[in-house]
Amino acid sequence: MKLFLYILYFSLLTFLPLAVGADTIQRTIVTSGQGEVYVAPNMAELNMQLQTINKDGNRAKRELDDQFNRLLRGLALLDIPKDEIIASSLQLAPHYNYASKKRELVGYRAVRNITVSINKLDQLNEVMATSLAAGIDQLGKVNLKVADEATYQKLARQRAIDQSKTIASELAQSYGASLGSIITITYKGSDIQYPRPFNEHQRSAMMSSDSDAGIYLHDNIKFNDRISVIFELLVAE
Q1: Residues 10-32: tens digit of each pLDDT
Q2: Which residues face 95 on adjacent strands?
Q3: The predicted structure's pLDDT at residue 161
Q4: The domain 43-145 is classified under which CATH number: 3.30.70.2970, 3.40.50.150, 2.60.40.3080, 3.40.50.1010?
Q5: Model confidence pLDDT, tens digit, residues 83-138
């Protein structure tokens, strides 16, 4: 008899959660939102290179230092502070001529890579011209940027949130229901898509004498954000 009662009690405990779960099925609605913000760049980052070749390594370095100092003085006239200029690396290595079968030492090549941050995009042409006058051998990539990126990324995120809420509310109303509390939020990440750097042809067009300085076309910077959310769905019985 005791064994029978024990088996009956255990069976009731096993069945009870299933019965309760069947009566309390949670209704939910899952939506996603994407926010996009397009902003015209107002800043630029210019990469360039200084180099000198001399038979004496020390003289090659001194000549490179002289060019760099001329560049700093020219940029100072454009109100570009030193903390906007990165030129931490300096390379000095033998330079050989391989025209003949025998390797011939020409001299020593001193190289310095420089990056200048330009906070006013309309100064880009002036910075390029000043750099060339100072002896810059190679103008590299021009990366376009915008100030206060965090503000635009936050705006894109808010648009993603608003879109997810709007879609969820419209769907719920279409089925005669309403939204309840938020169950889960899944943040799917954000990204910033910058315009492609200027190539050699575009830089030459900007620097040509028969074109207006500073007049050129460029793509906008795109800020993107994505989010997914699960709402409780309230259905009138």
Answers
A1: 343 444 444 444 455 679 999 99
A2: 107
A3: 97
A4: 3.30.70.2970
A5: 999 998 889 999 888 877 788 888 999 999 999 999 999 999 999 999 998 888 78
**Helix/strand/coil (H/E/C) assignment for every residue in 84-153:** HEECCCCEEEEEEECCCCCCEEEEEEEEEEEEEEECCHHHHHHHHHHHHHHCCCEEEEEEEECCCHHHHH
The Cα 175–Cα 231 span in angstroms is: 14
Chain segment 60-81, per-residue pLDDT in tens: 999 999 999 999 999 999 999 9
Query: What is the rounded end-to-end Cα distance, in angstroms, of the chain?
Result: 45
Query: How many other β-carbons are positioned within 10 Å of the β-carbon of residue 55?
Result: 11
Kindly report, as residue ranges, where domains of CATH 3.30.70.2970 are found in the chain: 43-145
**Distance from CA of residue 12 to its chain's centroid?**
60
Q: Which class is 24-41+147-237 in CATH?
A: alpha beta
CB burial of 65-77 (b: ≥16 within 10 Å; e: otherwise) equals eebbebbeebbee
Q: Do residues 53 and 173 lie in contact, with contact meaning Cβ atoms separated by under 8 Å?
A: no
Q: Three-state SS string across 30-77, please?
A: EEEEEEEEEECCCEEEEEEEEEEEECCHHHHHHHHHHHHHHHHHHHHH
CB 86 within 8 A of CB 48: no
- The amino acid sitting at 81 is P
| Whole-number Å distance between alpha carbons of 34 and 39 | 17
